[in-house]
Amino acid sequence: MEGETIKIMNQDLVRLDRFDGSNFTRWQDKVRFLLTALKIFYILDPTLAPLPEPKENDTPQVVAARKKREEDELICRGHILNALSDRLYDLYTNTNSAREIWEALENKYKAEEEGTKKFLISQYIDFKFFDEKPLLPQIHELQVIVNKLKVLKIELPEAFQVGAIVAKLPSSWKGYRKRILHKSEDYSLEEIQKHLRIKEESRSRDKMVEESNGGTNKANAISKANHTRGKNNNNKKNSGNYMSPKKNQEQFKGKKGPCFVCGKPGHYARECRFRKDQKGVVVNAIDEEIIATLSDVCVVQGKVQGWWYDTCATVHVTYDKSLFKTFEDAKGDQEVQMGNEGKSKVLGKGTIEVVFTSGKKVTLKNVLYVPDMKKNLVSGDLLGKPGIKAVFESGKLILTKSGNFVGKGYSCDGMIKLSTNDNINKMTSTSAYMCDSNSLILWHNRLAHVGLSTIKRIVKCGLIACDTKKFEKCEICIKSKMIKKPFHSVERSSNLLDLIHSDLCELNGMLTRGRNRVGSITEADQRRKRGMVLPFEPLSISFDEIRYAVDMPQEMKAQGVTEDRLELLKGVSGSFRPGILTALMGVTGAGKTTLMDVLAGRKTSGYIEGIIKQTDIHSPHVTVYESLIYSAWLRLPSEVDSATRKMFIEEVMELVELNSLREALVGLPSENGLSTEQRKRLTIAVELVANPSIIFMDEPTSGLDARAAAIVMRTVRNTVDTGRTVVCTIHQPSIDIFDAFDELLLLKRGGEEIYTGPIGHHSSHLIKYFEGINGISKIKDGYNPSTWMLELTSAAQEAALGVNFTEEYKNSELYRRNKALIKELSSPPPGSKDLYFSTQYSQSFFTQCLACLWKQHWSYWRNPAYTAVRLFFTTFIALMFGTIFWDSGSKRKRQQDLFNAMGSMYVSVIFIGIQNAFSVQAVVAIERTVFYRERAAGMYSAFPYAFGQVMIELPHIFIQTIIFGLIVYAMVGFEWTVTKFFWYLFFMYFTFLYFTFYGMMAVAITPNQHISGIVSSAFYGLWNLFSGFIIPHTRIPVWWKWYFWSCPVSWTLYGLVVTQFGDIKERLESGERVEDFVRSYFGYRNDFVGVVAGIVVGITVLFGFIFAYSIRAFNFQKR
């Protein structure tokens, strides 16, 4: 046998291709044949009985059979692993059974092959034969698809396959196809292939003879025919007597002369594809004039949406910067060469995620950002390197990887366009614009009431055609704008300051959008602001030479930095005034958010008027209206009554356009509830109900598309128009969003100021300032001013130009005007008073506790995934334990009976308690992020929040205890007395409470829920070990007794056991009384119940207090 095995293994039979996840059925058949040849395939039989255990009295035959079975098992496993790729070998190398490996591969990869059923059917239907390839190999490819379908148990009748082959023949076989279809006899697959092979050889010989006789059939011949189509052809040129005999009879062979239909040579009129009665498509026809026409059609006008598959491109290229998931600016001068020998500049590169209509995602790396491109190109060469296979047939592109379908494309305008999700959306949106109307107001309404400047840019790009000179006022836009009255100017004795302020606010004679003047505002002016029911005091904020530094990070010290402090802000000065929307901009790391945090008091101390952070976190299980009620309740002064507060909330909801979302649940970000744009508007509304005078917004449009960003900016603009001071950090806004701002404070990396001043109409003031610097070229027409400004002031461009924009600004007239304005604003007018806040919070401690408890009540009530599931789990566990320990509490004859009854108490405490602790951690982890935001906004302190979180658990756990206690107490059969039943519920209630509070405490002292789960699990193990059930208290070593007394579960079992059995006088079978056994074996004393109850209550209070203190002391925010 060994010799035969070695002989077979030396043959080529065992040289199998390694299985890498594709073509599993083929690989399985080969391995099955190999194992069958080796006579060891029986090892994989699922009905094979397992090997019996060896015995001392086994016969030699049994020992030999066992040895052979073990050797066959080893050889079979080795052959299977040897036929796997390295990746799969490492995956299954720890599986000892060959049958387990075989079944695992079948379950995994046969299921994957089942998923390709529809794809194979579609591939079979779309398969076509072409004249360029030999016919029989193409038939073979079609038969391969049939065999794959047969493996998937899809049988195609032989007559159907023959008919499909005949139907898929090329158009040049039309005559032969007609003859086959008109014959009454049926052909088998072998017969039809034999006929086709003979016919193909005959056609090849005829073609060779025709070429040797000087035939003139040239597909690429081009000539211009001057003739008239139709039957009456009056062109008499070259006419003659066609009935007379000719000297050269060979002139009738071939396709000489022009076609009578299209006028082009190379084919007969019956074969012309321009015939009106022609139904088919001549796939292989080559026409130079049509190619010339297509070259004109394919000229790209403007930017073309979507992704295009290009086998000639050597890199991925895009013109749309918004598509990048990660992006970095280009280093140095990089260029790409176009197909027309032109070169375009590369501004950066990054990673883009392309989502196909199939739902599959392909991540493109090192995609170049080239704004001059007209199409987004995917390199066919780079796409194929990760193993993505591309097959192009019949104008369709199919992308697969390891036999699995990835995506598709189709022929469009001479190229291959990939079917991606953005194609569908953008094609749908553009199809609505195909209108011949040139009315400007029509396009203004269709384009969601965009501005005139945006429509002009669209017209300039050639996307629409309309007359931009005739622009009528839009009634809807006029009504949507919020009219505000300007602030009254204040007369001052200093003409110089008035002149400085006038020059700053009316640079080049153009008024800023705010038209605000610095000075005191009377109370009557305050009440005119937008007609709000609650007045507010408009405030300005000015700052001069702000510097902020932190300790130098260890990473930078490791790189050789010697300084001890890292300066994030270096002498930043500026002012923000009422009714003026200021943009705080700069590249990443410029210090935008740091400056806003310093001004808001988040870096040192102070009173926060209103701040909207970049993360829009709210309690997920309350409605939009309840979120505003909650914020107004805690943040408005206590003098404001409930009716006025609700009227003010209604005004704010109308201002930020939230009336339609009044009863909508907030939900969790990216999961359910409100969209990102709606969350940002809710965040603005939550701050507005506090009636602040100054509002800081940290990137309010981040993560939004153009439409959503426009809605949010309209809300911001409405807020500014109420007369409040609003400052927004923003990264790289669009042209329309940038036009909504009045002034700009621009920082560069390192926290240095390079521009502070008005933006102007269409950014005219900003552009004029930067173009006035020596060496700065003018901005291109239609280019985004904000993008141009950020690119111009980047560190690389600043070094290339040799310009220090900080020094340019400090030497400018604008800087001196700003300094004078800051000095003026820093000098309070006569009669003004300093801002004074008597308390840190608007409401008392008691009101804060009530508000937090109110919100937690609605959060728990609308969270059945937590509350209802917990009650269902409790009921199920109670019924299960009741049936397991049925009537064990009434049995007291043996020691084992007492152990069984105590076991029911022990498992109840462990199961329900740990479940409570784990389930509450997810709720507290979510609410803690909300707490961080609300505490930073000055809504309440830490203890009211902890009070609400702790108190809301009391009634829910009480209901849980009643359900569990009634079921378990009755089914286990404990003694029905008022005292015993009360003590049972008492200890169970406080046990469930301290487990829940412990889970909350674990979240409060750890950075996230995962770490809290790990920490909790470690203590649960120790509590389980020292509970007094596994090892009684009397048998624990003396050096571990301290942990028994500090273990909460041991006190719970102490109370439960001693209250149920500590006073039982009945005797066991051993003659010992039950109460004596409980005292001697467990060490539990009945007269100690009061102390035990007090300790359990104390542990509960302790865990609740640690939770409250940890929430106040620890802050695990990343910023």
Automatic annotation (TrEMBL):
The chain crosses the membrane at residues 865-886, 898-918, 957-974, 981-1005, 1011-1031, 1043-1062, 1088-1111. It comes from the Eukaryota. It is found in: Membrane. Keywords: ATP-binding, Membrane, Metal-binding, Nucleotide-binding, Transmembrane, Transmembrane helix, Zinc, Zinc-finger. Residues 213-225 have a biased composition (Polar residues). Residues 259-273 form the CCHC-type domain. Residues 200-254 are annotated as: Disordered. Its main location: membrane. Residues 200-210 have a biased composition (Basic and acidic residues). The keyword Nucleotide-binding applies. One of its GO terms (cellular component) is membrane. It is a multi-pass membrane protein. Residues 541-774 form the ABC transporter domain. GO terms for molecular function: ABC-type transporter activity; ATP binding; ATP hydrolysis activity; nucleic acid binding; zinc ion binding. Signal peptide: none annotated. This is ABC transporter G family member 40. It comes from Vitis vinifera (Grape).
